[in-house]
Specification:
- The chain is globular and about 35 Å long.
- It has a five-stranded parallel sheet.
- Helix 4 links the parallel strand 4 and strand 5.
- The relative contact order is 0.25.
- It is 36% helix and 18% strand.
- By secondary structure, the chain is of the alpha/beta class.
- It has a single domain, classed as Rhodanese-like domain (Oxidized Rhodanese, domain 1), CATH 3.40.250.
- It contains five helices and five strands.
Length: 107
């Protein structure tokens, strides 16, 4: 099971200016409805051929989806590829909308 980060912990880390790379593994239509600023869209099905786009970083890598299921799979996959400090956003962007920013649309 990959490490998870709560929406509150992610919001606090972002507010503190921590180096965090956000990867959205949802479908493009979902990303168009709602997304986190600065995130990179790489749908889960495209992750094997596009994982090199993520690059290496000293900071955390946070993967998110709608409710946190796809992002857990993506986090496991990225860890197997050798990425370090990978987290799945618990509850996904839906939890982010409920707990952190109600301006982010729910769907």
């Amino acid at each position: 099971m990959p490490r998870q980060i709560t929406p509150r912990a992610l919001a606090d880390a972002l507010a503190a200016g921590e180096a965090i790379r956000l990867i959205d593994v949802r479908q493009p239509w979902e990303s168009q409805l709602a997304s986190l600023p600065g995130s990179v869209l790489i749908p889960l099905g495209e992750l094997p051929e596009r994982s090199k786009e993520i690059g290496k970083s000293d900071g955390a890598l946070v993967v998110y989806c709608h409710h946190g299921i796809r992002s857990q799979s993506a986090a496991v996959y990225l860890e197997r590829l050798g990425y370090n400090n990978v987290h799945s956003l618990s509850g996904g962007i839906d939890a982010w909308s409920c707990e952190i920013d109600p301006a982010v649309p729910r769907y």
